[in-house]
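Supplementary Note 3. Input sequence used for the single-chain structure prediction.
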Amino acid sequence: MKTTAHDAPETLLADGKRVRCDGGGGALGHPVVYYDMGAADDVECQYCGRRYVVRGSARARFLGLA
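The predicted structure, written as discrete structure tokens, is reproduced below.
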């Protein structure tokens, strides 16, 4: 995954529709959560606000991440 700055606290490119988030920062993060994007091309973590966007998707191109 590649880190880029956008309107979410942090936007990461994902290689697939299933992602795992722990907030980063080791002990300063949050509990590990898993997200399945389903029909969407992105998802935002309910704890830390990180956005995960599928690499090469229309959403990634719209955000200028392609």
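Helices lie at 58-62. The CA atoms of residues 11 and 35 lie 15 Å apart.
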